[in-house]
Structures
1.
Amino acid sequence: QKEVEQNSGPLSVPEGAIASLNCTYSDRGSQSFFWYRQYSGKSPELIMSIYSNGDKEDGRFTAQLNKASQYVSLLIRDSQPSDSATYLCAVNGGNEKLTFGTGTKLTIIP
Amino acid sequence: EPEVTQTPSHQVTQMGQEVILRCVPISNHLYFYWYRQILGQKVEFLVSFYNNEISEKSEIFDDQFSVERPDGSNFTLKIRSTKLEDSAMYFCASSESRYNQPQHFGDGTRLSIL
């Protein structure tokens, strides 16, 4: 059974600080990794995709991938109240489906 | 920005009834997916569809489920005889190509089985 694990939180971060979200996956053959943001009652919204080891930056978001450790993370700099949401890690193992973690609920405290 | 659209946003159905959920994928995308999310649980893959046939399905996607692309734009999920445990959010997604590509999700249909 291919698993994606996330700390469910809640994770509380002061406004303006850095939020750090983590994800581990069990399938060593996984090839692509995605972070989605999901507001309560809404659909997953793609934030970042990462395919190779290292860091990938997009605005205030940085995704980090370490395939040897089977670890993906998302950093959110200068956190804003609008960043309060559940962040879903999703992994693709070279087939067609995404395997999702349970998500980490992030709350930004003004 | 192009988006995946789903209708209806909320469907209430009696147990045992058939239900059809509809999706219009992003126009230049060729790969289509259905996922579901039971309240408070993780997003789960149901099925993927390409070139008018199912390319992969999960254990959840049993004989009660079917998918169809009835025309050039719509993609549907049918549940033949609904059960209480089918109550969930159902998300349609699409992607440009098959493997390792971002999947873009619609707003979802909330299905409530009474």
2.
Amino acid sequence: EAQVTQNPRYLITVTGKKLTVTCSQNMNHEYMSWYRQDPGLGLRQIYYSMNVEVTDKGDVPEGYKVSRKEKRNFPLILESPSPNQTSLYFCASSLYGGTQYFGPGTRLTVL
Amino acid sequence: KNEVEQSPQNLTAQEGEFITINCSYSVGISALHWLQQHPGGGIVSLFMLSSGKKKHGRLIATINIQEKHSSLHITASHPRDSAVYICAVSSTGNQFYFGTGTSLTVIP
């Protein structure tokens, strides 16, 4: 089944404790992206990747890191999480210029 | 700065009504996307279009590139159409920008 998976789905952590949210797709898509969704602000792009070893900043990259060592994986790293990073996070992938397929979301709470 | 504006923010309709959600954007785009998000959070892509009109079942999406405007229409609305509808654009710079969504409730 074609899908985008994210793990974990729910995470509660404390300020400053490094964490990684994994994202994997099995559709051989070149384009992958991370978004956060906040009430009243909607979805905003954090980082995106056009292909392996190519990553670019989106609208709200501060406090986040990403890597794209393999085509299928695009982990999101929060090296020192803060409460303002409490949000619902989505990973998505697509063929270049194509329809986006979204993961199920990761609800992160930083205390 | 709001690259994508949607209206209305909230919409309540009676079952069977014709519904229109509007989207305007201010950046150069390679495509415009309509997304659906049900309670529980999952996001599904409904349409991707760069010109003209697309139809899928009771849903119709149109785009006017010159006016930088798109509409999503739902004909013969049904309670199962209740969801948040989100307009998004993929810019010519490969970034995505999103509207804040339209929350639709269809009452039986």
